[in-house]
């Protein structure tokens, strides 16, 4: 029978770190919880606590453009834009990851040029894209100029993730597939892609969430039609009701749903792999 193991008293640093972590969690999620609670205010309530006459009326107000703004239209632009950015980010990042597995002339210049967009202020980049489109006589739009602006933000993250994932991939898996008669495309399709698929899901998650929540790069590049973050910012100047909290609750739920879907997919893939061993 194994002897019981006793532990001494925890050092004072443990309690300090635990307190700091608790304060960090409260600081991080406290505003979200407050917005969630206040979004259920009743018709006679204000923008502050306490919660009075709980109701769903402010969620219904979101679909009244005359009072709260074009929330539905902004959502119908932000969602397709985020999906397009997500798909393009995954495709370009995966293709670049395979290309950079072997060094070639100018690879370092291309890599650092792509990563440099992370340090450029988003508002400055938005202005530059707007000026460029006007120079060529092209209109600014959420599906054109804004798409390029968002890709300049999401692609560096996608590239870094795929470089790290493919950089750790053991080439012996592909060599074994080739020895068994598989072509280069078959080895990539049947061996490499299943292995790096969780990394591709992570790239997709970054692409979607960064685009869906992006404000500075959207400010001037979307044209006359707002995306959802811009519509929320506009509402803060002309809406003085809990409808703003209701919109914040809806957007937060959508973001968490996407994150949960991505993490759930990764967990499911890992369980299936574990079951095959």
Characterization of this structure:
The protein contains 11 helices and no strands. The protein is mostly helical and 277 residues long. It has a domain at 70-238: MetI-like (MetI-like fold, Orthogonal Bundle). 27% of the residues are buried.
Layout of SSEs?
Blueprint: H1 12-38, H2 57-61, H3 65-68, H4 71-99, H5 107-115, H6 122-135, H7 145-167, H8 171-179, H9 184-212, H10 228-238, H11 243-276
Indicate the CATH class of the domain at 70-238.
Mainly Alpha
**At the third CATH level, what is the topology name of the domain at 70-238?**
MetI-like fold
Q: What's the count of strands?
A: 0
Measure the end-to-end span: 32 Å
Number of helices: 11
How confident is the prediction overall: mean pLDDT?
82
Uncertain segments of ≥5 residues (pLDDT<50)?
none
In which range does the helix fraction lie? Answer: over 70%
Estimated radius of gyration: 24 Å
Beta-strand proportion: under 5%
Instruction: Assign the CATH architecture of the domain at 70-238.
Output: Orthogonal Bundle
What is the H/E order? Answer: HHHHHHHHHHH
Judged by helices, strands and strand pairing, the structural class is: mainly alpha
- Under CATH, the homologous superfamily of the domain at 70-238 reads MetI-like
Major sheet summary line: none
Based on CA inertia axes, which overall geometry fits? globular
Question: Which terms would index this structure?
Answer:
single chain; mainly alpha; 277 residues; MetI-like fold
